[in-house]
Write a structure and sequence with these properties.
By secondary structure, the chain is mostly helical. Helix content is 67%, strand content 6%. It folds into 2 domains: 1-35; 97-336, Orthogonal Bundle (MetI-like fold), CATH 1.10.3720.
Length: 340
């Protein structure tokens, strides 16, 4: 039981218990707040939150959703930049794509590129992350330097490093063939070969992107409880068994995120292919369209051949493929990914 005594308008009311123990003062402001409906306070908090989100949301909508919606719009029209007249053609652009062998070839090239990049990215980045984690745990000298060296390629400009890789893969005096010949292996044509041009681009892409995925895996490995690893070590568990039974299940959300990110980035690969296989000098996607991915074909169709409606239809198809793969991976992850 409490006894309330009146106080001044500034101090509110003084509250005592039945035994006379002082419990404090309630201000007039807090009493007024308690009188107001709870829904009013929730509405006010939501309005404040939406107001704080409005600037960033406006920029995102203006530069992402509006162009995406307009791209979907012009994919159903015959549209040109310099022409104000547009003719509605329905699904004619999509039917044209299905009858274009080059478009179907670009989809297969993108699929091949993605199927190689995903497992290579996951395995290499996870292996490097485990080595760096071991060095950091044992506090080996130079672990921080190696971690920075691994991440450094990711923050370098893609076009600049791609030009360097063009020199590395030069069939006459490149470093790649220099190493192969000294190992007793035959020299390769690399970017001039139909069979080795895309693998050369994949090597460049792996070198450039691994740093990001290594950092993500290091963040995931840092969440693995040390107690479990210590108990497994005391029980005599081997490192392979510890990784398979403890580390791998606990970092499965991180693995899923890396796989999803690598899938999206692989289907959208453009800069390194454009720079290594021709760039502004023409011939990008060669030789003989061996490195022409869907993203590169979208650029060429729009800005080289100026068929913007057809390029918009290609972009819609590319979006549908990425969205489908994302939903499939999400469906699989709900059954095999372990969330603590």
């Amino acid at each position: 039981m409490t006894i309330t005594t009146a106080g001044t308008s500034h101090e509110g009311r003084t509250v005592y218990t039945a035994s006379g123990e002082y419990t404090g003062k309630t201000s007039v402001k807090s009493r007024r707040r308690s009188i107001l409906p709870v829904r009013f306070h929730r509405l006010r908090d939501r309005l404040i939150a939406y107001g704080l989100m409005l600037p960033a949301t406006s920029v995102f909508v203006m530069f992402f959703y509006v162009p995406a919606a307009y791209m979907l719009y012009i994919s159903f029209f015959h549209w040109g930049v310099l022409s104000s007249a547009t003719n509605f053609v329905g699904l004619a652009n999509f039917r044209t794509l299905l009858n274009q062998p080059l478009f179907l070839h670009s989809l297969l090239t993108s699929l091949y590129y993605t199927l190689v990049m995903i497992p290579a990215t996951v395995l290499l980045s996870l292996g490097i992350a485990l080595l760096l984690k071991e060095a950091i745990t044992r506090r080996k000298r130079g672990a921080g330097i190696w971690r920075g060296a691994v991440f450094l390629p990711h923050v370098t400009p893609v076009l600049a490093t791609s030009i360097i890789w063009v020199w590395i893969f030069n069939p006459q005096f490149g470093l790649a063939n220099f190493v192969l010949t000294h190992l007793g292996l035959p020299a390769l044509g690399w970017l001039e070969s139909v069979h080795w041009a895309l693998p050369a681009v994949i090597i460049d892409s792996l070198w450039h992107s691994l740093g990001l995925y290594v950092i993500i895996f290091l963040a995931g490995l840092s969440t693995v409880p040390r107690d479990l690893l210590e108990v497994a070590r005391l029980d005599g568990a081997k490192k392979y068994y510890t990784f398979r039974r403890i580390i791998w299940p606990l970092i499965s959300p991180t693995t899923f995120f890396v796989t999803l990110l690598a899938t999206i980035n692989s289907w959208q690969a453009f800069s390194q292919i454009y720079a290594m296989t021709g760039g502004p000098h023409g011939g990008a996607g060669g030789p003989a369209y061996a490195t022409t991915t869907d993203a590169l074909l979208v650029y060429q169709t729009a800005f080289v051949y100026e068929h913007f409606s057809l390029a918009a239809a290609m972009s819609v198809v590319l979006f549908g493929i990425i969205m489908t793969l994302t939903l499939i991976q999400k469906w699989i992850s709900d059954r095999i990914v372990f969330y603590r």
